[in-house]
Fold:
Amino acid sequence: MKRWPCVFMLLLLAACGQARVPEEPLGKTASLEEETPEDVEAPGEAGSIQSAVLEGELLSPDGRFLARMEGHRESVTSMGLYPADTVQITGAETGEVLWEGDGSYSQSILGSPEGGFSALARSARTWCSITVIETEGWTKWDFTLPDGSPVLEYTFLPDSGPWGVWQSEGSLDLTTGQGGDAGEQRHYTCAVETRDGKLKGIAWEERYETLPGSYDFDHDGEPEIVELVNVAEDEERNLAGWYELRARRPDNRLYWSNSFAEAHVGWGSCFACRVDGEDYLLRYLPSMYQGYATYTYELFFLDETGEEQVVRDGSVSFDINFGAPVHERFNPAAVAAFLEEVHGLLEDSELLLATEGGNFRSGGPGSDFKDDLAHWTDNELYDENKSLEENIRDIGACWEENRTA
Structure:
């Protein structure tokens, strides 16, 4: 399953594009004149100074656009490079310049999966910046930190690993900082969308944790890297946070994710489950709203593209609003059979992420998960000497008698 958007988290609105007019980037990233005199190095011996570099996906994933540099400024050098004069995005077939901005000493570009956006990172000796460009109206958004400030001076892009990954169209993950002794890395998730004729963006900071355990969810013989990401709440902007479970290939490529939140609408749980000697993911959503419950589960593995391949699933619904004008089914045998089936799978599983009850949890055996049983096991009538079905029937009968009296 690819990343699914959390509609209760992303607060951006859709809108239309504008005319194709090349636009200069704004802010600190747009001008090399802000480099102080000590930032500028004198040219070395002939041949020791090289032209600027442009890396990344020069051809957009959909094949429509091509990125290139034009010219270089020999009057300014740094990092052993001449800065590029401009960076351009052109039509891949026509060569027409569709967007143009100031070049720098080093630049890298990444296109979104459907070609609707390009993310351009530029670096100089004392700063880096990231600009997102939409490819319909050719407006742009200069990435800022969640508090609205630009990337701090002397913060650079990672030495190893990607600086950016498009998780989906309009959803971009960014990393700043080189890591290790060179400085702490910080991670952000960004949502971008065109609104009122301009590209708008918003960023949340993420905290990463690589989970212990070795899991091979795509059954190719190589274990995946499983990450737990905490996307921080932003009280100042009234933005809810959430948690995300991610699976990466050994080459660090993200190919599956699933999100949950502590807000009721985002409750859920996910387990690493062992069945017949193979690793599977078990997503379990035992939800109840105002006495009406629908419990669902899916047991699945991942194919080579990260798509979920469901091998077993199930659901049960019941209503404990006895005495209400409209009361739906309450079948103790069906409820008990479903719960026993799920808990049979949980016996050989590890909890990866749960937010049930608004409580974040990760780690520990899946057999300890009892949230879905609490309606009955926490009741004073629950009798451990009886079967689960008998307890559900007896407690349900008591509820019905009291609520219809």
Observations:
- The chain has three helices and 22 strands.
